[in-house]
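ABC transporter substrate-binding protein: structure, please.
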Amino acid sequence: MHPSKLLPLGSLAAVSVLLLTGCFASGADSAGGDSNGERRIRLAMMQPPRSGLSPLSDDAFKLSRWSTAETLVTLDKDGDPRPALAAKWQRSDPRTWTFTVREGVTFHDGTALTAEAVARSLTRAATAAPKPRILDGVGLTAAAEGNTVRVTTTDADPLVPQRLSSPQLSILAAKAYQGKTVNPVGAGTGAFVLTKVNGTSSAALDRNEKYWGGRAKAPGIDVRFIPDGTARAAALRSGEADIVESIPVSQAPLLAENQITEVPMPRTNTLYLNTEKGAFKDPAIRAAARVAIDAKALVSGVYENRADVAEGLLGPALPWAKQRQGRTAATAPGKVNGATITIGTFTDRAELPEVAASLQQQLQKAGFKVKLDIREYANIEQDALAGKFDAFILSRATILDSGDPTAYLQSDFGSEGSFNIAQLSDPAVDQALRKASATPAGDARRAAILAAETAVLNSDAALPLLHERVVQGDAAHVVGSVKDPRERELISIATHIS
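Here you go.
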């Protein structure tokens, strides 16, 4: 533990007092009770809505975590598609998929789920400006045909079902699409009905008594958005919240062990090395940096052992990644000879400046002269993408929205990648990425992805450091909250207060 990270007890007490002023009071009583003796779930979330809870934005993940908005498809632990609002689907040609709409489903406003409703939601997403991230670069049309929806893409795409699992492609009732904005209040199909949104401060949901998937055990959810991590942890410690999203590493030791769960995230902290110019243009110097880095020291010293040492770019949140070969062609380390390098990173993730300081010490011991450039992400991203650093520390989501790592690998390591901070142009990597991209979903695609990972590791363009975990807080009386590495699920029909 780093005592310097913790607030003084007086400050913590002040935070707790602020939280104890009825912040979770709702239509039920302030203790989360209900007239039938059931208790509503009091949920503290990290990020307030950025786009009025529009499903076409990142706010969509809140809607899915509350089980209020649903998609045609969901994903299993391996990232393979499973039925949701679509009962089944088939691919008739490389560009065309047909999805059969589940029968007997109604929206929260009482209207029926139909193929026309599905096509309307998908069309609104596909024609939005900007498009939802999952459709970036993807041309997609949707047309209703009886009780089916025909989805056609401009190019062959083996990941259409996985794409349609993204919460940004949630299916909502017609009432949600009045005007230019998308309003999800009372318009979903899920186990809970979104009834009220109070700007960026709170939201309320009631049980959907007609949910097609069964009756939820909790009568409702009261949500508060609390960006300050110390305040969120205090809400759990004081009994003001039942479930708390994303407890900071520094606050976890202040909670009882039975109140926290560490969930591996598909997010890797990686040191990207500039392969185009500077000291790391030389593969032998990249190899010297690789052997100089002690990732275990980062995990223990910065993350207080609440992270996993990286064995590759893909971490334990993807169980099948254990089948990797790993690096198969390690370059021999060269002599550093006092090479001067500048490492960049950003302050938005509290641990990254500490990671940078630790790496500076480790690399200096290996003979490098190391400068640090640390700014807010908005002020440093452009320079990083332009290759103005010798190295850059990035905390990067590895499966993005489709549950498939191929897009991440292409954007970060393909010679035409839009996020190629390493400035990598490696024929072996490009060939492996093309194969992975063209391979149908399933075991063969996963094997091709791991082969692409090996090609990247062999280049030493990226040195994976650690895989982050998200620390979720649950009061002892919470039953059945979902521990989802993809952060798409949190409260299900089984979640309740005992």
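Notes: Confidence is low (pLDDT under 50) at residues 1-22, 26-31.
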